[in-house]
Design brief:
The complex is a heterotrimer of chains A (339), B (296) and C (327). Chain A has 339 residues and is an all-alpha fold. Helix content of chain A is 78%, strand content 0%. Chain A is globular and about 85 Å long. The N and C termini of chain A lie close together (11 Å). Helices cover 73% and strands 0% of the residues of chain B. In chain B, α4 (86-121) runs antiparallel to α9. Classes of the chains: A mainly alpha (339), B mainly alpha (296), C alpha/beta (327). Chain A binds chain B through residues 15, 18-19, 22, 26, 30-32, 133, 137-138, 140-146, 149-150, 152-153, 156-158, 269-270, 272-274, 276-277, 280-281, 291-292, 295-296, 298, 303, 307, 310-311, 314-315, and chain B through 30, 136-137, 140-142, 144-145, 148-149, 152-153, 225, 229, 232-233, 236-239, 252, 256, 259-260, 263, 266-267, 270, 273-274, 277-278, 281-282.
Chain lengths: 339, 296, 327
């Protein structure tokens, strides 16, 4: 098992390296002079030249890459040409917000989606299955920002249950920064009112993101369980007297989770970039929204950093998914390492 | 059997398999519903200038006396902030969505399929490695990011958006076809074709490709909905169809600013988006049922 | 004395796009306590469907029991409630399936599965609180009894790591660990290498003798059933066509199909090549009327097309479903 993990980790490092090269290449090759963009059209030629020298834009490509990669590994991602702050500061500010949102959304989709999927799969072709199918169809067909708007309309404007924007209400003091996760921090600090407020703020955006996942993962789980129910070994378990509850929750769930886990991991990684759709509607100060802003403003350093972060997140998630799958399905482990 | 009898036999076999396919498709009423809705949308989009009550509103039109009107018999979906009929704009908006889907899939599927066939056929050669590594890299980046990055580097409009999305879509088809090709590579019918001297083009296109047809078709239909989602998302942040053209995502973005008071400006375009994606998904599901092999 | 298992006039249909497949057409079968009975027929004749009907694991839909009874110790299984069926499975009826790889859950160790079977069977017998060590010990014993080498180590392996023979031994120990009185074995050695087949069959035979269980051995091979059964049923296209004591059947086959089957088996002495049986197995959508074998039968008479023959008695425990032997 350990051998497998190391294999996967090494693979990801290689992929990340390739990705960094690709991104760097694209960024430098694209039309437009980054220095000029940074300084604006009113800058003099000298100022532009000076900035170019500073940014090493006059040196050959491999040299530029070397400078860049060494500073990245040291933790310096350059300065944002737009906010004028070090990119790492921006990242530290925005990533936790999005992370909290995505994690919460993930939890929602895990609990609701899996329960719905298992029940729909076991009671396939029942009214429950039909209903969950309907919900899934609509859920998958609704882009996140559309869902955000609908939820906003219904729950905030009509029912007045949840607030409209931000992580906390205006003027509310944030809890001490321990993990940068507002909900956790307020719970740790004992500020339960703040925690509740943060919860109310996070529910809608998380739900908007979660619906599509619930729809998709729920269906996959359902299909997987329905398929595996037909397998001979399920029949064998039943014939040999293993009780139904055990058959479903132990023997059926494990192999059925396998396709779901891969999708869940992918969805989780994707949400880091898709979350902006929701962050924009709810004015959530997150990484995804930052990524979009940065791209719209052609902020080179920040764009590169953002893509790297996303690529890193992808690789990490992929490795975790592979490890979980190899735990669930020993055949993967055994075939790879030669068992 | 005479030639005529052979022909009739062949034709009737075709008829049976079509009706059997339709039977499987129509088993699910939702798929039929999806097909109906989809056809309706297509007809409406194609004949937009004749169906929309105010076709001139789908552009730079202003009439501030009739701005921000709620839905009524005259204006089914109300009017927007500058007085344009939302219903007509939605109908024209469908045109952009459908064009986007058609163009993107038309541009990304053929190269993806061909690369997948080649990569899967020439196994263990440098060609395969090259093709699959490139595919992997493209797949390692979340599609939206790539599309965003590219659209931003160039100027934002529908055309560039289509190019950008196509560029990130082809790897999925490459991978799909690659997987099927590798599994069929050493089957008997392929080897027979090789031994009897068939050209590589024949083997790839006439032997292996038909086996991929069903998954490609199904994926294509489901992808259409997904492409429209991506397109709407990009338009939502201003990177797609530019105003005053009526892109559905753009309209939702504009309408979102007027919530909750003038809700119709955002809600109806949003519903329209959901409708078209839903219909594609339902049809795609029906196709999947149609191609599924029944086990007794 | 009530027979252990009695199937009376069982009709089973499968629903498909083209119509109803009338698979079982009135099957009659009896197994007494302690008997070893064989059910022979070619692939697709309905043997597995019969077994699954008795175990009540038929996939309903698309399958459907359209007539008949299955009596276990006199009670109709088909009318039982789920709770009763469950207790049947835990100590009365058990089965060994054809494909051991498919019958074992691929993502759990063999030991895990076997332990669970033993745990629940003990529970059903009222002995709940057995320690884990005790259960593992029983698993090891069960495996050893099937002739499995190195039983302890095998418990921690996954099905994919074992050979076909070992997997089938695991399945056999699972089946027998339920302390069932009736074991139905569906082609237990068909998927195994020829060299292993004999071994497994011999071990199965020993175990069955030791525990005094009744056996229904299903196979398409006459050779397999010859040494292991006391009575034989021959099945064709959803009907029983002949039943007799095994040695009587081999000595004096009466039904044209049985005779053809016997002559199809190549003899080691190399006399002549078998002719096979002309024609094909019937289409269950539109099966032949009357006797389902009549289109392929050299001795068909006009009545064979009109009426289905029931099992006529021709000797001591020897019955044939053929109008040639009607009295």
């Amino acid at each position: 098992m350990g051998k497998y993990i190391i294999q996967r980790l090494l693979q990801s490092i290689v992929v990340l390296f390739g990705l960094s090269l690709l991104i760097f290449f694209i960024a430098r090759v694209m039309p437009g002079d980054p220095a000029r963009v940074a300084l604006g059209s009113l800058a003099t030629k000298e100022q532009v030249e000076n900035l170019r020298k500073e940014m090493h834009l006059d040196k050959p490509f491999p040299v530029q890459y070397y400078f860049w990669i060494t500073s990245v590994l040291r933790g310096d991602l350059g300065t944002s040409l737009y906010t004028r702050r070090p990119v790492t500061t921006d990242l530290k500010a925005y990533i936790p917000a999005t992370l909290e949102l995505i994690l919460f959304s993930f939890l929602m989709s895990l609990v609701i989606g899996q329960v719905m999927g298992v029940l729909a799969g076991y009671f396939r072709n029942s009214w429950f299955d039909g209903l969950s199918r309907l919900i899934s169809y609509v859920g998958v067909a609704t882009p996140a920002f559309v869902m955000a708007i609908f939820l906003l309309l219904v729950f905030t404007y009509v029912l007045n249950l949840t607030p409209a924007v931000g992580r906390l209400s205006l003027g509310a003091p944030p809890p001490p920064k321990i993990t940068s996760f507002i909900i956790l921090d307020s719970l740790i600090a004992g500020e339960f009112a703040t925690a509740l407020q943060a919860l109310r703020h996070i529910v809608l955006p998380a739900a908007s993101l979660a619906v599509a996942n619930i729809a998709q993962e729920g269906r996959i789980t359902r299909t997987s369980i329905a398929e595996n129910l037909q397998k001979d070994y399920v029949m064998a378990h039943v014939v040999y007297g293993i009780p139904t509850a055990s058959t479903i929750f132990k023997y059926l769930l494990r192999p059925s989770l396998i396709p779901t886990v891969s999708v869940m991991g992918l969805a989780f990684a994707y949400q880091l970039s898709y979350a902006f759709l929701v962050e924009l509607v709810f004015m959530w100060p997150g990484f995804s929204r930052y990524a979009v802003t940065v791209m719209l403003n052609k902020d080179l350093n920040a764009i590169v950093a953002v893509v790297l972060v996303i690529g890193l997140a992808f690789s990490v998630v992929n490795v975790i998914v592979d490890i979980v799958v190899s735990f669930l399905d020993p055949r993967v482990r055994l075939q790879r390492v030669g068992g | 059997m005479s030639k005529k009898e052979l022909l009739i036999a062949a034709l009737s076999r075709k008829r049976v398999s079509f009706s059997k396919g339709w039977y499987k498709f129509s088993r699910n009423p939702l798929s039929v519903l999806g097909l109906v809705i989809l056809l309706l949308i297509i007809v409406v989009a194609v004949f937009a200038p004749y169906i929309a009550p105010f076709p001139e509103h789908a552009g730079a039109f202003t009439n501030f006396r009739k701005s921000s009107l709620p839905p009524s018999l005259n204006h089914f979906f109300g009017t927007d902030t500058v007085g344009r009929d939302v219903f007509s704009r939605v109908i024209f908006g469908y045109r952009f969505s459908l064009i986007l889907a058609v163009v993107v899939l038309g541009l990304s599927i053929p190269p993806g399929v061909i690369l997948g066939l080649i990569g899967g056929y020439y196994q263990r050669t440098r060609i395969e490695i090259a093709i699959m590594r490139i595919t992997d890299i493209f797949l390692a980046v979340p599609p939206l990011v790539l599309a965003l990055a590219i659209t931003v580097m160039l100027s934002p409009n529908l055309f560039n958006q289509m190019m950008a999305i196509s560029l990130m879509w082809w790897p999925w088809y490459c991978r799909l076809v690659y997987a099927i090709t590798t599994s069929l590579r050493y089957e008997y019918f392929v080897r027979e074709a090789e031994l009897t001297g068939a050209s590589k083009a024949h083997i790839l296109l006439r032997e292996i490709l038909p086996n991929c047809a069903a998954p490609i078709l199904t994926k294509m239909t489901l992808d259409a909905g997904f492409v429209i989602t991506v397109g709407a998302s990009l338009s939502f942040i201003g990177l797609g169809v530019q105003p005053p053209k009526p892109g559905l995502g753009t309209m939702v973005a504009d309408g979102a600013k007027r919530l909750p008071a003038e809700w119709w400006m955002a809600v109806f375009p949003a519903l329209a988006i959901v409708m078209v994606i839903l219909s594609f998904n339902l049809v795609g599901d029906g196709l999947r049922d149609m191609f599924a092999v029944e086990e007794v | 004395m009530t027979p252990l298992l009695e199937i009376k006039g069982l009709h089973v249909r499968f629903k498909t796009f083209e119509g109803d497949l009338r698979v079982l057409n009135g099957v009659d079968l009896v197994i007494d306590e302690g008997e070893k009975v064989g059910l022979v027929g070619e692939t697709g004749c309905g043997k597995t469907t019969t077994m699954k009907s008795a175990l009540r694991v038929l996939p309903i839909p698309p399958a459907r029991v359209s007539g008949g009874e299955i009596l276990y110790r006199g009670k109709d299984i088909l009318k039982m409630r789920p709770g009763e069926i469950r207790s049947l499975r835990k100590g009365e009826m058990s089965a060994i399936f054809q494909d051991p790889l498919a019958a074992l859950n691929p993502v759990f160790t063999v030991g895990h599965q076997l332990n669970d079977v033993i745990k629940y069977s003990l529970k059903a017998q009222g002995q709940e609180h057995r320690s884990r060590k005790d259960i593992i010990a029983r698993s090891i014993t069960a495996l050893k009894e099937t002739g499995m080498p190195d039983s302890e180590r095998i418990l921690s392996n996954y099905p994919i790591q074992l050979s076909g023979g070992m997997r089938q031994r695991v399945c056999i120990s699972e089946a027998l660990s339920t302390e069932a009185k009736l074991v139905m074995a569906d082609e237990p050695t068909t998927n195994l290498d020829v060299t292993i087949q004999a071994q497994i069959l011999r071990q199965l035979n020993e175990l069955v003798a030791k525990r005094q269980v009744s056996v229904l051995l299903i196979s398409h091979s006459l050779g397999v059933v010859r040494n292991l059964t006391e009575r034989l049923y021959i099945m064709y296209a959803g009907n029983i066509v002949e039943v007799a004591r095994t040695k009587d059947l081999f000595a004096d086959p009466l039904h044209p199909y049985t005779k053809a089957l016997l002559s199809s088996v190549p003899k080691l002495t190399g006399e002549g090549i078998s002719q096979g049986i002309r024609g094909r197995i019937p289409n269950y959508l539109n099966p032949p009327t009357g006797c389902r074998f009549h289109p392929r039968c050299d001795h068909a008479m006009p009545i064979c097309d009109k009426e289905r023959p029931t099992l006529f008695a021709v000797g001591d425990s020897h019955r044939v479903a053929c109008f040639l032997h009607r009295r």
